[in-house]
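Question (not urgent): is this output format expected?
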Amino acid sequence: MNRRAFVTGLGAVLVAPHTVEAQQQPQKIPRIGVIVPVEPESPTEPNAGAFRDALRTLGYVDGQNVVVEYRYAHGKEELYAALASELVNLKVNVMVVGSWQPTVAAKKVTQTIPIVGVGMGTDPVQSGLVANLRRPGGNITGSAWVTGGEFAGKWVELLREASPRIARVGYLLDSRVRPGPGMPDTRTPSLQAARAAADTAGLTFHVVEVREPLDANKYLSELNKDRRGALIVIGSLYFMARASDIVNLAAKHRLPAIYSLKVFMDAGGLMSYGPSLADLWGRAAIYVDKILKGAKPGDLPVEQPTKFEFAINVKTAKALGLTIPPSLLLRADQVIDP
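Got this back:
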């Protein structure tokens, strides 16, 4: 063997182990951080569960080719920033955050890690989360809750069908949810649409804005003094965490009530109509997939809800002395009849 052949062969021997070692180096598993604002820590919880199922459908198996770090705030607003900071310290590749207040908190903590907001308010542009819906810019994308109040008039319509004798409608708002300095109140479109529907139907419309659910006691007593009142409840994270208190309050005053979130049905609410949170969580997984494959969040349009859910609790209706018309039951996506 000549000298050149020997050197070439020796070089191959020396290089080969390094090449094999490089090929055997495991790829870094991406890490997803998830902030669940209110829902309980449970694998069967429908919203986070929808996210898990959608990830699995896209080929991501937690603990195998992806690691998902879940953090739960249990409805405590003071935890949002701390949980976001914790996920930043874990060096997650992307963060998924439920609702607009936690998304605002996450944005303050990081301007570099991609954030997918789930139902991040009625207008993410007005709240300063994104530059515009088509091209959000920055590190945030995801789904809005509802822009405009076109669907809000349905609350009045559904209440009238369930309880034709109503003469007054109360609109329960969480006073904690207020715009920042110089920002418009994004609750206004839904409120105006509900008020317009009440006016058209000849119903008196009352806005009941409270800080704590029990603060509404005196207002609701007056609202239903002759059993001709009804109630619309706009879900906030704070109200969601106290869904049982609010549903029990409506029951105490024998008020037919409709809720903007399905979570109130789990507490025994009469009716709910609004966007499907589970659907929005499921779609968040699609954003995560695109981002992990190289897409920039600022280039991914913010989606509007496309799936709305209508649920009726027949047991609650009976307790209120209501007979739900068959035509209304047929239109419901879910009829709870224990």
